[in-house]
Write a structure and sequence with these properties.
208 residues, alpha+beta, eight-stranded antiparallel β-sheet, 21% helix, globular, binds zinc ion
Amino acid sequence: MSMLTFPLTPRFLDALLELADVPWCRDAFDEEFRRRGWARPDAGGETAVGWLDHWPLGEPDHSWHVVLGEYPGCSNSDDPGVACDEPACHEDSFLAFPLAYAAIDCVEAGTGLPVDPRHLWGDPLPAWATHNADATQDDFLACYTDTERLLRARLGAPLPAAPPVPSDEPERQTSWQRGNRLVSLFLDGNEANYGQDDWIGIDIRPFH
Ligand SMILES: [Zn+2]
């Protein structure tokens, strides 16, 4: 099967976990993304991360990306600098960093040939990614277990139970609490590609 993986370096893992300490509001994430080179000031001098979509972590089309949920902040305020701890203000607000995509038995309509990874995951493929056309399910699951080991080393024992992320019933999930955030490793169908592929990623959202 076709599999695309992204390297989870210690430095990148640090950068992800630091995001769990950021106040849950747009201004704070604009600043953090800009500081990491993931967003530029717009024409008006302000930075503006586009939520509710994929967002490139660097040059578009040549980079890793993050999947962003609803805008962070308070649903009772339009002020991008206002964060709040009310669970109702954070439903479906998250950052999900993909680590691997795998297309199992996925073929091109018409030709019946294995799907071209560029059609599923971008053209050109991100420069930091590794594509393996002959990966196995074990290779894909190894990505999950390797990442779980890294996260256990950083965050300790996972929670015995946690709310499901990023969908109602991910195939696999292991979660930790870090301050006021829930940090989760997940394996799930990729809704952005209509379930043609599965993905493994790290999800960060408020802990309730
Ligand atoms: Zn609120």
